[in-house]
Amino acid sequence: MLVNGIHYRTVRMDDGTVKMINQPLLPHKFEIYNCPDHVSTAGAISTMIVRGAGAIGTAGGFGMAQAVLEAFNLKKDSEAYIRKAREMLVSTRPTAQNLFYAVNKVYNAVLRAPDLQTACRIAVDEAGRIADEDVLSCRTIAEIGAELIGEKSRIMTHCNAGWLAFTDWGTALSPVFYAKREGRDPFVWVDETRPRLQGARLTAWELKGEGVRYTVIADNASGYFMKLGEVDLIIVGSDRIASNGDVANKIGTYEKAVLARENGIPFYVAAPTSTIDWSCSKGDDIPIEERQEDEVLFVRGKDLDGRIKAVRIVPEGTTARNPAFDVTPARFISGIITEKGLVKPDTLAVLQPAV
Ligand code: MRU
Known about the structure:
about 350 residues; alpha/beta; Four Helix Bundle (Hemerythrin (Met), subunit A); Rossmann fold; 10 helices; about 35% helix; binds 5-S-methyl-1-O-phosphono-5-thio-D-ribulose
């Protein structure tokens, strides 16, 4: 992603330090957050300094590599140290499959190492490969998905599945960026995405940076614009896809998909195959994260004097529920855009790697 003319990846590792774009500060401030060890990397994932399925996968892989480097420096009980680090990293967030994919890939690669010094090299290389693979998959999704976008298509999206949700490029938004760079003039309806406002804060910031036309709408306005005939297609990302094609994504995705069906609008999901959990047979088995109620009870933003503030929006003593994701049944999904091609949810099995 280009920010003020400089190319950034959302997450990278430099000399043992994991560096990430500090997402809660956006769009008001652009800052890089440094995690010197795996504990701080795990903390950054659970507090959502880094968020989005692919980005937390990359961060988790790098966190695992940091733990191996730390174990080497500790010199004792390295196996237990690395195992505990793995447990900590996978317990940061429960829904996004890419986190488990990346952490386990680095962990399993290290298990095969003959000694700790070799393990360090293997871990750093494997984590770097996972990050590069994520970029390449998203770049391919951009090209495949762009074929669905016409000269002036009006696309609706929910949450943020752009540059910031992956190592680079993104999934739901990358076809839009690609089409724009090819000279087309797409328009994006951006759902604000309560309670953390990833649409209003992050998707809008990315589209503005790319010069793509967009308008932010309240989450509950999306059906209104669908019914008016002002939405040509919907593209969203995913945090985990079950093997039957059911898709977990940001809370509110399910209702967009049902409304899309009602209004005859194609509804696409864009995700790398690393998001598919082949061991999970149906969406009801995907664990759904429930976050703190304060995210619903308060809204954060910049006041008229330019200060970032959290303000309470409900009466004192009010309680809230805050599920972060929901599951859209496969029957509402027109197609899943992956780096291996566009498939119907009921033919997902063609993507399953041979064992
Ligand atoms: O809670 P988040 O912000 O980590 O949720 C992830 C998301 O942004 C979305 O659900 C997204 O559409 C899929 S992740 C690429």
